[in-house]
């Protein structure tokens, strides 16, 4: 059971954003892409019992941690974690079917992965979400070409030093990428530590 300090800090604020945005009165199907340690999915699953959660990860060590959290909490509404590479088409997403999900959640992946993962995330979510389904992403972002405050500027610089394909993405870029996949930015929520939750709704392109 790996423990990420950031996940421990942000799991409750993200849960609050989820509570405001999803129907808690009926059974829902959710996929978390890039579940990390498993702290988020087990926290959300305990609070939102009406949602069946599918955790996923690219990193093999994280997959083992997610399974350790599942075993510890014995949650019936969390499925076994699947290996998922967000840069690949949805056909490689562990058998998840088109228009089968009410919710896709992605936390702190976009800035520490190549742009192909972001593009794959929106493309795949646009397929697997039901009409009116929700994609929630969380992390630090640039707004209209500007990164604020200085701590996020420093963070962006350190990420790009580690990997030239990493870095904070601009919300306008994410929004246009989403729109080309039938997802529309419905809500932006300011979060602690200069992060944001962006909520995209799947709508018909007609």
TrEMBL record:
InterPro entries hit by this protein: DUF938, SAM-dependent_MTases_sf
SUPFAM superfamilies: S-adenosyl-L-methionine-dependent methyltransferases
Highest taxon above the source species: Eukaryota
Family, as annotated: Belongs to the UPF0585 family.
Protein name: Methyltransferase-like 26
Organism: Zoarces viviparus
Taxonomic placement: Eukaryota, Metazoa, Chordata, Craniata, Vertebrata
């Amino acid at each position: 059971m790996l423990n990420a300090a950031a996940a421990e800090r942000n799991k409750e604020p993200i849960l609050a954003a989820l509570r405001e945005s999803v129907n808690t009165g009926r059974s829902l199907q959710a996929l978390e892409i890039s579940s990390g340690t498993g702290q988020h999915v087990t926290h959300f699953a305990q609070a939102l019992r009406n949602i069946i959660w599918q955790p996923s990860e690219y990193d093999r060590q994280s997959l083992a941690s997610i399974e350790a959290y599942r075993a510890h909490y014995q949650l019936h509404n969390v499925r076994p974690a699947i290996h998922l590479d967000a840069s690949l088409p949805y056909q490689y997403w562990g058998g998840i079917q088109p228009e089968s999900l009410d919710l896709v959640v992605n936390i702190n992946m976009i800035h520490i992965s190549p742009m192909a993962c972001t593009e794959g995330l929106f493309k795949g979510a646009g397929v697997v979400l039901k009409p009116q389904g929700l994609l929630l992403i969380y992390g630090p972002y640039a707004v209209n070409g500007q990164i604020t405050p200085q701590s996020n500027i420093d963070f962006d610089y350190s990420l790009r030093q580690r990997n030239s394909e990493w870095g904070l993405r601009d919300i306008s870029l994410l929004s246009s990428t989403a729109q080309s996949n039938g997802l529309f930015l419905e809500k932006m929520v300011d979060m602690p530590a200069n992060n944001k939750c962006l909520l995209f709704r799947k709508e018909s392109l007609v």
